[in-house]
Amino acid sequence: MAETHSLQDLQQPGVSSKVFVQRDYSSGTICKFQTKFPSDLESRLDKQQFEETIQTLNNLYAEAEKLGGKSYLEGCLACLTAYTIFLCMETHYEKVLKKITRYIKDQNEKIYAPRGLLLTDPIERGLRVVEITIFEDRSVGSGR
Amino acid sequence: MPGFSSGGVGGGVGGPASAPPRSFRPSRYVPVSAAALFLVGSTSLFFCFTCPWLSDFFSAVIPIYIAVIFLFTLANFCMATFMDPGVFPRAEEDEDKEDDFRAPLYKTVEIKGIQVRMKWCSTCRFYRPPRCSHCSVCDNCVEDFDHHCPWVNNCIGRRNYRYFFLFLISLTTHIIDVFGFGLVYVLHHRQQLDTPHAAVTMAVMCVAGLFFVPVAGLTGFHMVLVARGRTTNEQVTGKFRGGVNPFTNGCMRNISHVLCSSQAPRYVGRLRSPKSVEIQPPFLIPALTEAQLEAKVLDNGIQNDRHSARSKSSLDQIESQSADAEPPPPPKPEMRYPGLPRADTEESSLLTEAPPTPSMYKYRPAYNSPGRNHTALTHPNKMIRVESLDSPSPSIVHSSRQPSYRSEPSSLDGTTVVGGGVGARRGVGERGEGPGGPGGTTGGVLGGMSGYSLTGRSYTSYPSSLVLSMGGSHSSSMRSAHAAHNPLATLQSEGTTDTSYKSLANQTPRNGSLSYDSLLTPSESPEFESAAHELSPHKPHAPFPSVNRTGQLEMVSPSSPLQGYMSPFLSAQLAQQREGQLLQGSATFSSPHRAYLRAVSPPPSSAGLPEAQYLLQHNQDSSSRGPRNPSSSSPGARSLEPPVSPPPRGLSLGKSQTYIGETGPQHKPRPAGGGSVLGGAGAGGGQQAPQFTSRPVLANHTTSKPGGGVKKVTGVGGTTYEISV
């Protein structure tokens, strides 16, 4: 017996709209995103959840940009090796960025995808916006 | 080399979001090749001819030490040359969908209490983050843009500033070492100066000595910048002349930020992680709270409608003419410079029927024919009006007048958008950018509102001041593409234009690169001069062909503001003052543009002054000597305050107020009058008044004010930068 699937089920849901969470520049040019809950997400997501996600992202970026002993040592080492160290070693910022990518993936899997949303890593947009894609909710019309 | 940029010629026109065609310009590689050649060549000669004797006579440590310094210099040179300065990738199409047509040219954000303007970049399709600027040479927006350095043929931005700075320091050290040890050699071989070794050593010493002055000057300049937490762009455009820099964290922190922060990541050329998340309905939906339910019931969807209504109304009006990719035609000549003396009837009609700020298009005369903007002119005005209904006009001055100038309401991205002004600002801004001389920015009068004024830091990395020159049509809040890249030449703020819309702005003329030159002579003296003449119609300045072309001095700004970057408020006030004066005289004075025009152009700098010196002088002089012109900006500003504060007295006044509000730094509290604005500005930015005095763009002495040519600006230590205008 052939298994039939409706085309709808096989397709990825269409993109209904995108919400862009802009940067919060109130403290300067450090990387920080606005925690204001976009109105478009009201029907899809809890405010709490959203704020928590953004806040965690902000904290991670703050950690990346922190001027601490680690970044200082990294700079010194780079100077001493005429910057050839960059060929082999990953910088602190990059390490944190990887952490952020993992966090976003995790959030997407656990929280956002079940709600028909998708967070895009802001680094892909030059750390200017956090893009949240809202997918169409076709569950009502699936016919199954 | 990362320094590639699409040639200004033809490079930017019609360029889509993807990389525009890049013309290969060998001339761009001349300075960097020369620099590399001198560095490597001279040092090699030194090692071959002088070092053997030095190691014999003194010790082997000397050549080793010199070698280490040389390698360090070379490494930093290579990093500065080849490293991505922090280029922002172009925004994807869906990102600015909501912002299209009616989106204001500027968005304001508050940074540590200071209003900073973010300009819409029509090439990159996003609002430039603070401190970001679009380099016309590289055709990219660069984060924390410092300047485009011809000697490394690359932009200096966030990622490679450290290497550039270390390169300067190490190069200065290296030059001193080479010169010093060469001198020691020569002094010990006084009797054998005819030997090839001695001759070569002396030649190397000459080269070293020759380069020492400019390099050391530049090093000193950058040391000051690092300590103050400013970029070259900000310094030369006089953004923080009043002394309030929201980006500084104190001297020690600034230095450690430059030297010790972790290497910032690259934005372009990153591997995109594959989307591994599957999204399938059914989706979870959060439970609504009771309050939410109630709100929904009562809402009637009005809120949502607002969003769409706003755009649609204007969109409808604008659609017909702005939907196409072509730049809107420039407004009729009479309408183009609302502020200029003109027949009364026209002026009054303009004033009565149109929104306060005339629409200004930033466009380059070359691209547009004069007749085309008529419709555009009126339409945007209408649109503005519609829009304004939504938002309270935050603008400082024009509360009464220009509700329309309100920029997109805060719903736009949630950023703080300071209303009215923004709308206007776009137009103004566009003007600013446009002109650059040849550009003829439409609506040139941005003048006064320097982006950099006062507290508000409206930045326009692009020479909004250039707009001044250009008559262009006033694009009502259209972000004309033309302006987009104009070189810094005039850092006039964009503030002046009234609503400029992104759509208009999206035809980008790209020209010129931000070099010291443009930075230094933002508004080109001619602008100032014209401004100085205040409204006298005869002022076309040679340097700004656009002005000539229009035949009218669009930017008539009060003399005082001419210097440097004037706070928009000040200029506005001055404008108002002037308007008052003019009203008695010519009826045509309308100034919103004027205010802006005036404001920003820095007075022509005396040629030849090294910027460092200039800076030193100026910082002292500016406060003391005030504006060059009789109406000193500071006192003028102050005196203007009273007149400004009361509601606009006349149409023209109102207009100028409007402009002022728009262009200037968008202070959150917007008092209705220029005075208050000024006060606000003062409060926010420390003392702004003196800002516009002075500032010359120091370096710009050699500027050739070309109509569309290349401006050369002499930077610190005699470095010359070319800005295509």
Q: Unreliable segments of chain A (pLDDT under 50, ≥5 consecutive)?
A: none
Which segments of chain B are poorly predicted (pLDDT under 50) over 5 or more consecutive residues? 1-18, 303-328, 341-499, 508-515, 517-572, 585-707
Count the beta strands of chain A: 3
SSE order of chain A, as H and E? Answer: HEHHHHEE
Distance, first to last CA of chain A? 18 Å
Report strand order across the widest sheet of chain B: 1-2-3
Tell me the fraction of residues in β-strands of chain A, as a range. Answer: 5-15%
Mean pLDDT of chain B: 60
Structural class of chain A: alpha+beta
Counting helices, strands and paired strands, the structural category of chain B is mainly alpha
Strand order of the largest sheet of chain A: 1-3-2
Main location (chain A): Golgi
Domain Golgin subfamily A member 7/ERF4 (chain A): 19-131
Keywords (chain A): Golgi apparatus, Lipoprotein, Membrane, Palmitate
Membrane topology (chain A): Lipid-anchor
Describe the protein.
Chain A: This is Golgin subfamily A member 7. Chain A: Belongs to the ERF4 family. The complex is a heterodimer of chains A (about 140) and B (about 725). Chain A contains 5 helices and 3 strands. Chain A has about 140 residues and is α+β, with helices and mostly antiparallel strands. In chain A, β2 and β3 form a beta hairpin. In chain A, α2 packs antiparallel against α5. Chain A starts with 6 loop residues before the first helix and ends in a 9-residue tail after the last strand. Helices cover about 45% and strands about 5% of the residues of chain B. Chain B contains 24 helices and 9 strands. In chain B, strands 1-2-3 form a 3-stranded antiparallel sheet. A two-stranded antiparallel sheet of chain B has the order 4-5. In chain B, β8 and β9 form a beta hairpin. The two termini of chain B are about 25 Å apart. The interface between A and B is large, with 66 and 60 residues.
